[in-house]
C-alpha cells in the first residue's frame, strides 16, 4: 500500500473502483484488509473506495502519545485533504463509526452522506461490550497464541449461525489476522479511546443524510445503541439486520453494499 503524509501522521491507504469517493473507516483492532473483498468488490462498482490503516497499524506511522477518537477523526480529515478529496461519502464501523461521528461534527462540509455501522455514541443509555466478551478477547490476545486470539475475535464478531455455516469465511478472516496482526498495545489504546467516546449531546448538529446499520446478534456493541443514535440524529435512517453479528458486512456483503449505495444516491 502507498503511504501519504497527512500533516501530522503518515497513513497507508488504498484507492480502487470508480465513482464518487467513499471513505471507509475501520474499527478497533482492524486493518484495511478486514473490509473483505466481497463487500469491497460490490462497492467498487459505484464508488472510488478509499481504505486506510489507522496510526499504529501496518505501514502507517507508529502510535505515539495519547490516542483519542477525535485525534483519529483528524487523521481521517487529513487523509482526505492529502488525497485532494474535497467531499466524500463516509462509512465507519464500530470504533470507526465513532471516528466518523467526530469527523462529521468537526468537518461537516466534507461529508456528502454518513453511514454508521455497529457503533455507538456514548452518553445516557449507551453500552459497550459486556465484561464477559471483553474477558474472552483479553484472554485470547494475552495468550501468546495468535491463532486462538483470531478465533476468539471471530466468534464474538459474527453470529453463531453464520460461524457454523461459513467455515470458508473464517479461513479468510484468519488469513488476514495471521498476516497483519495489530499490536496489542495499540488495541488497548483504541479500547480506552472508545470508552471515553461521547458525542451524544452533539449528534443533533448533524445535518447530512445519515444511515445507521446494526445487527441484532451483535455481541460487541448491543443493537440498542443504534436506536439511541437514531433518536438523536435528525432525519436519520435506521436499518436493523435480524440475526446478524457485529461484522454485518461479512455476513451480508451484498445487502450491506446495497444499503450504502442507496443511501449515497440521495446526495450523489
How does this model look, in words?
The chain is α/β, with parallel strands linked by helices and 268 residues long. The protein has one domain: Alpha/Beta hydrolase fold, catalytic domain (Rossmann fold). The chain contains eleven helices and eight strands. Strands 1-2-4-3-5-6-7-8 form an eight-stranded mixed β-sheet, sandwiched between helices. α2 crosses α3 (95-106) and α4 packs antiparallel against α5 (146-157). The longest helix is centred in the N-terminal third of the chain and has 14 residues, at 69-82. The chain starts with a strand and ends with a helix.
Average pLDDT level: 95
Count of alpha/pi helices: 11
Order of helices and strands: EEEHEHEHEHHHHHEHEHH
Q: What Rg is obtained from the alpha carbons, in whole angstroms?
A: 17 Å
Tally of separate domains? 1
What is the level 1 CATH name? Alpha Beta
Bulk shape? globular
Lateral strand order in the biggest sheet: 1-2-4-3-5-6-7-8
Q: List how many beta strands DSSP finds.
A: 8
Helix percentage: 40-55%
CATH homologous superfamily?
Alpha/Beta hydrolase fold, catalytic domain
Strand % is 15-25%
Regions with little confidence, pLDDT below 50 for 5+ residues: none
Key features of this structure:
268 residues; alpha/beta; Rossmann fold; eight-stranded mixed β-sheet; 43% helix; globular
Topology of this structure?
Layout: E1 3-5, E2 10-17, E3 21-25, H1 37-44, E4 48-52, H2 69-82, E5 88-93, H3 95-106, E6 111-117, H4 131-142, H5 146-157, H6 160-165, H7 167-179, H8 184-196, E7 210-215, H9 224-232, E8 237-241, H10 248-251, H11 253-264
Parallel strand pairs: 3-4, 3-5, 5-6, 6-7, 7-8
Antiparallel strand pairs: 1-2, 2-4
Amino acid at each position: 500500500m502507498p503511504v501519504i503524509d497527512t500533516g501530522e501522521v503518515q497513513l497507508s491507504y488504498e484507492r480502487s473502483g470508480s465513482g464518487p469517493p467513499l471513505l471507509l473507516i475501520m474499527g478497533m483492532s482492524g486493518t484495511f484488509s478486514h473490509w473483505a473483498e466481497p463487500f469491497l468488490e460490490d462497492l467498487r462498482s459505484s464508488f472510488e473506495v478509499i481504505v486506510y490503516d489507522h496510526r499504529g497499524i501496518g505501514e502507517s506511522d507508529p502510535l505515539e502519545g495519547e490516542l483519542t477518537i477525535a485525534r483519529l477523526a483528524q487523521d481521517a480529515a487529513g487523509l482526505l485533504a492529502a488525497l485532494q478529496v474535497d467531499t466524500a461519502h463516509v462509512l465507519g464501523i464500530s470504533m470507526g463509526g465513532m471516528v466518523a461521528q467526530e469527523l462529521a461534527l468537526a468537518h461537516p462540509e466534507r461529508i456528502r452522506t454518513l453511514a454508521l455501522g455497529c457503533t455507538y455514541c456514548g452518553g445516557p443509555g449507551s453500552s459497550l461490550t459486556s465484561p464477559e466478551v471483553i474477558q474472552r478477547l483479553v484472554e485470547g490476545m494475552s495468550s501468546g497464541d495468535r491463532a486462538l486470539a483470531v478465533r476468539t475475535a471471530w466468534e464474538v464478531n459474527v453470529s453463531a449461525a453464520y460461524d457454523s455455516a461459513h467455515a470458508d469465511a473464517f479461513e479468510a478472516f484468519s488469513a488476514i489476522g495471521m498476516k497483519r496482526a495489530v499490536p496489542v498495545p495499540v488495541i488497548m489504546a483504541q479500547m480506552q479511546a472508545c470508552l471515553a467516546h461521547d458525542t451524544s449531546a452533539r449528534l443533533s448538529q448533524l445535518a447530512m443524510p445519515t444511515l445507521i446499520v446494526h445487527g441484532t446478534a451483535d455481541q460487541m456493541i448491543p443493537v440498542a445503541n443504534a436506536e439511541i443514535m437514531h433518536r438523536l440524529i435528525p432525519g436519520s435512517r435506521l436499518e436493523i439486520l435480524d440475526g446478524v453479528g457485529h461484522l454485518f458486512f461479512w455476513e451480508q456483503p451484498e445487502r450491506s453494499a446495497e444499503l450504502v449505495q442507496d443511501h449515497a444516491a440521495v446526495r450523489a
